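User: Sorry, folds how?
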Amino acid sequence: MAALLGFRSRSPDRDRRTDEDRLRRLTAALDQIAGEIAAERGGLSKRLQARAVNAGFLNESIENGEMSAKAVAKLDDLSSSIVTAERRLALLSRQSIIVEAWKKNLNEFPE
């Protein structure tokens, strides 16, 4: 019985401030992650576009009879790089969707 008499609860204001601080830190972390994903997607998209243009020019030169082994190898390299970049962009898109869903759920966090 003595243990029950010694129990004290925190004030509701302190609990509210603790919850708000925790939610603020979680929101900031998700915002940072969303920004990192967006930055990676932007940079990768630019590099992918440049590779696609280079592959198009290389392919055109090969079709015009300027088919050197070096050009064919470079085109194969670019093609592989493009496929890898497209896969990465798809994964980043899925990550972005998940992070946005988490952020939306935070807005519904009970008060």
User: Anything to note?
Assistant: The CA atoms of residues 5 and 35 lie 50 Å apart. The mean pLDDT is 89. The longest helix spans residues 12-63. The two ends are 33 Å apart (CA to CA).
